[in-house]
Amino acid sequence: MLALLLSGLLLAPASGGGDLVAIRVKRAETVASGPLEHALILVEGGKIVALGEDLPVERGIPVLDRPDWVVTPGLVNAHTRVAGERSPARLFEPQSRPTFDVDPRHEAWEELLELGVTTLGFYPDGSGIPGQALVLHPHGKTLAEMLVADSAYLKIQLQASASSKKALREAFAKVDEYNEKVAKEREKWEKEQEKKKKSSSKSSSKKDEEKKDDPKAEEKKDTLAPVSQEEEEKKDDKKEADDKKAGDAFVPPAPDEKVKPFLDLRAKSLTAMMSIRKAADYLHLLDVLKKEKDVQFFLQFPLSDDGDLYEVATKIGEKGLTVVTVPEITLQVNSLRERNIPAELVRAGAKLVLTPRFDTLRGHEDWRADVGRLVGQGLAREAALAAITLEAARALGRADEIGSLEVGKRADLVFWSGDPLEPSSKVEAVMLGGEFVVGDVP
């Protein structure tokens, strides 16, 4: 069956442009459905069009045969400002994006690609609610070429303080004020429409009466050319279209630019990344959001020896929340007991996203080794791979396009000399959107 599929692909014209190429490797870490041994990936038009174990290849399809390589989806760092320019600290700018903080000429982008990083969630600088993150590829001469999406999530830094909670509550109170304004405007508009309808009805009745009183009306009617039913229907359709153009539909007033992101949160068209530090911050967050049942959010926090987020791991897991943190083994407060909090969160039911321990190029160099160390100390391997690929893509709202090896997804692929979680493994090649951008590949 798969042989027939490959044969059909050979004969079919390329969709979306791009050459058809087959890549045979030792193993494919699909992330979504486990590893495939002796895997073959067929790429066309920048996407994966076939994937499987020991697939035959029809004659004429070029094959890149690398029996020692292991392929994974491109690595995704969902929370970074690496290579970013410094910017004025933002306190409450939920509508802003850090576009002016990105320098496409920075040499770090190329180095990130060489480390296997293909997608970045570039967040705005500042405290409070500094704005919305961008989604970038570390490849391109201009920001437009690098930009994947200009809104990944709204970054909100919440602390266990009255002022922090007040700022978030006031933001949603502004949404309530706007909705009340819209309701009043709609009510006013509906009353005006009712008046217009009554006025139009009276006018029509008056004209009919005038025609009845006019003895010459029938004579004038007889002298006119007969009108077909089809022409009458066309006139009625035109009148209906003209009425709609005249303003039959209610148009709500435009919201303030700082209110719109919170409207989008309630509409589930935007997700919030809630940055916290301690267990108390999470409990305060639940208190603030207890009336905001529709708001979708995930958590971001650092790990340190004085942190106590293990205290709320069960609560976080029960909600199935996504957590963004770093691959760090920490000590329990006031003890020498080591804790693998990322592993604890996964076991509790949370979805894990891991970012480098330090947001620097060196941090990205150590990233895989640090994740591998967590695996050695109890984190499930499949959860570790997903934490730097698929779950990170999901946090950016791009899981339908990237993050796993599946038919139909973008061919953002990294080819390794061995196990990607082993420090000794090196990047042999990187494919971005079906094009090799790293590696000496014919």
Summary tags:
442 residues; alpha/beta; Urease, subunit C, domain 1; 36% helix
Secondary structure blueprint with pairings:
Elements: H1 2-11, E1 21-29, E2 35-44, E3 47-53, E4 63-73, E5 75-80, E6 90-92, H2 108-114, E7 117-122, E8 126-129, E9 131-132, E10 134-136, H3 143-146, E11 147-149, E12 154-157, H4 162-213, H5 217-223, H6 229-245, H7 260-266, E13 272-275, H8 279-288, E14 297-300, H9 313-318, E15 322-325, E16 330-331, E17 338-339, H10 341-348, E18 351-354, H11 361-376, H12 381-387, H13 390-395, E19 413-416, E20 427-432, E21 435-438
Parallel strand pairs: 1-4, 5-7, 6-8, 12-13, 13-14, 14-15, 15-18
Antiparallel strand pairs: 1-2, 2-3, 4-19, 7-10, 9-12, 10-11, 16-17, 19-20, 20-21
How would you explain this protein's 3D organization?
With 442 residues, the protein is an alpha/beta fold. Helices cover 36% and strands 23% of the residues. It starts with a helix and ends with a strand. The model is unreliable at 1-17 (pLDDT under 50). The strands form five sheets. The chain has a seven-stranded mixed sheet, with helices on one face. It has a six-stranded mixed sheet with strand order 9-12-13-14-15-18. The protein is globular.
* DSSP helical segment count: 13
- Identify the strand order in the major beta sheet: 3-2-1-4-19-20-21
Percentage of residues in DSSP E strands: 15-25%
Largest sheet: 7 strands, mixed
Helical fraction equals: 25-40%
- What fold name stands as the CATH topology of the domain at 1-74 and 403-442? Urease, subunit C, domain 1
Q: Please report the first level of CATH classification, the CATH class of the domain at 1-74 and 403-442.
A: Mainly Beta
CA radius of gyration is 30 Å
